[in-house]
Design goal:
- Strands 1, 2, 3, 4, 5, 6, 7, 8, 9, 10, 11, 12 and 13 form a 13-stranded mixed sheet that branches. Strands 14-20-19-16-17 form a five-stranded mixed sheet, with no helix packed on it.
- The protein is built from one helix and 20 strands.
- Helices cover about 5% and strands about 55% of the residues.
- The termini are far apart.
- It folds into two domains: about 5-245, YmcC-like fold, CATH 2.40.360; about 265-335, Immunoglobulin-like (Sandwich), CATH 2.60.40.
- The protein has one helix at about 5-15; strands spanning about 35-40, 55, 65-70, 85-90, 95-100, 105-110, 120-130, 135-150, 150-170, 175-195, 195-210, 215-225, 230-245, 265, 270-275, 280-285, 290-295, 300-305, 310-315, 330-335.
Length: about 325
């Protein structure tokens, strides 16, 4: 990923450097903000290039899948578990606590608002740093060793982000923006809980512009495997944000369709809201399908957790038969 001196000299001589933007650290509104998260079918990114590109996503269709909020960390009752956190990003029950540090968004840990599970990182994670310009490369690692419900839990991961392209972008909501940078971001981590292991690899190509905290568009692929490398889940999509509202009321909520309760005591039932006609699977971390079916007209699946292991994946299945978006972890206490 290191570029040669010859390449850099040639790039500067070509005059491309004059066309590139430098993106400074954005400012977050004091009371925070919220945006609809919209997702659509996956589109592969263009190759990396030192020449300006033009990305046209104006005809991409999608549907709202959640509400992304950025609020002061003090608005969450779980904030004391994350020392130094200034902000919390929430998408449904999933929370990410972070602060500005060394010119970057420094993630100090994650939590689940429904189960009250908190995962503070032993060392904060920085995804990239500002000012941001073409050719920037950033690497970081993150670790969490903890106990959840009296069982050992560990998370070990690494990430690489590289600004590999620049140009103009036309968004699905009709907005066109110049001076965009694209970040090629790869995050991989190994998660182990009570003897079960899963390896998660998330690859995202994210488009950022001046004065925006979150990317304006991203293309993403997720692959989850077991410890032996067998694929458990594959999913991909494109996504963007729309309908930004500044100064979010604390009561703002979204129809998140999360399975509940989570965690659940072994043997108890779980309710999983899904679209009528949606195919689904429940699998363990070794890829075995424990149960599968199709959601009925009532728009909810009721699951019996008897004899399930301590962690399973709830997986919606697309009409093509591939596992799709909306994968959830379900923790089974005493499983």
């Amino acid at each position: 990923m290191m570029r040669s001196l010859t390449f850099l000299m040639a790039l500067c001589a070509s005059g491309f450097a004059d066309a590139q933007s430098v993106i400074e650290q954005p400012t977050v509104p004091v009371a925070g903000f919220a945006m609809d998260l919209v997702a659509g079918a996956y589109i592969a990114p263009t190759p990396a290039s030192g020449a300006a590109q033009s990305w046209d996503f104006s005809d991409v269709a999608g549907s709202t899948v959640g509400l992304q909020q950025v609020l002061p960390a003090s608005t969450s009752s779980l904030a004391p578990e994350f020392e130094g956190a200034e902000w919390v990003n929430s998408n449904g029950d999933q929370l990410t606590f972070w602060r500005w540090e060394n010119g970057g968004m420094s993630i100090v840990g994650n939590a689940n608002a429904a189960s009250l599970v908190t995962i503070p990182f032993d060392d904060s994670l920085i995804q990239w740093t500002y000012p941001l310009s073409y050719g920037d490369v950033h690497e970081d690692t993150f670790v969490c060793e903890d106990t959840l419900f009296s069982l050992p839990y560990s998370l070990q991961g690494e990430l690489t982000s590289e600004v590999d392209a620049f140009g103009s972008i036309a968004l699905p909501n009709g907005v066109s923006l110049s001076d965009a940078l694209r970040i090629h971001y790869v995050q991989s981590y190994t998660e182990a809980y009570d003897g079960d292991t899963a390896v998660w690899v998330l690859t995202q190509d994210m488009y950022v512009v001046q004065d925006t905290l979150l990317p304006v568009f991203f293309q993403e692929q997720l692959v989850v495997t077991d410890a032996a490398g067998n694929v458990l889940v594959e999913a991909d999509d494109v996504a963007w944000y729309d309908n930004t509202v500044v100064a979010v009321p604390e009561t703002a909520e979204a129809d998140l369709k999360r399975a509940y309760p989570n965690p659940v005591d072994a043997g108890r039932g779980v309710r999983w809201p899904l679209r009528p006609g949606q195919d689904w699977q429940v699998m363990d971390l070794e890829g075995r399908i424990l149960v599968e079916g199709r959601c009925g007209a009532e728009g909810e699946v009721r699951l019996d957790t008897s004899d399930w292991p301590s962690m399973v994946l709830l997986v919606p299945v697309s009409p093509s038969g591939s596992t799709g978006n909306g994968v959830q972890r379900l923790m089974v206490k005493g499983g």
